[in-house]
Design brief:
The protein is mostly beta strands and 153 residues long. The chain is built from 2 helices and 11 strands; from the N terminus they run βββββββββαββα. A 4-stranded parallel beta sheet has the order 1-6-9-11, with no helix packed on it. A hairpin with a 2-residue loop joins strand 3 and strand 4. The longest helix has 7 residues. The chain is globular and about 55 Å long. The protein starts with a strand and ends in a 27-residue tail after the last helix. The model has no long low-confidence stretch (mean pLDDT 86).
Length: 153
């Protein structure tokens, strides 16, 4: 997943897991079955919402780690230390507030000028998707942003 914005502020029922939830096993009628996926990778992405932890996981064993890479991402996580022990990571941003200009609508198309995800994307991964969802160049200001939409000055 490259340049993805996952934003979940669902209010009507209590969610049991974060907006992104990964498990390295599943339950079947005959019992638990383990099965490792090849690899999951999030790059230049935002995973945020109204839960304390928006990137959650279940492990078959407490000694397991996830075959997951998180590179240049902004995450909302209550226990950053536990997450960092379970995944491969590089240049993560943990933020209490994504700093949007319209906080009521939680619209990531309109970050505040001080938003922590502006100009934080990896150029290497951004060249794979040089335009955002609206057709804007990720390189118009020379520094690509995290998420699906490039900040426009």
């Amino acid at each position: 997943f490259n340049h993805v914005t996952v934003s979940n502020y669902y209010k009507h029922k209590v969610r049991q897991a974060g907006s992104v939830h990964i498990s390295n096993y599943f339950r079947h009628q005959i019992g638990e079955i383990t099965g490792e996926y090849e690899q999951i990778e999030f790059t230049n992405s935002i995973i945020y919402g109204n839960m304390d932890d928006e990137f959650t996981f279940n492990l078959y064993s407490e000694t397991n780690t996830l075959n997951c890479n998180l590179v240049n991402c902004l995450l909302k996580a209550k226990d950053e230390t536990l997450l960092l022990k379970r995944v491969n990571h590089q240049n993560l941003i943990f933020s209490e507030e994504p700093l949007l200009t319209n906080r009521e609508t939680k619209n990531y198309m309109y970050p505040d000028t001080l938003s922590p995800f502006i100009d934080k994307a990896s150029v290497q991964f951004s060249t794979q998707i040089p335009f955002d969802l609206l057709g804007n160049s990720r390189f118009s200001d020379g520094k690509p942003d995290l998420g699906a939409i490039e900040f426009q000055k």
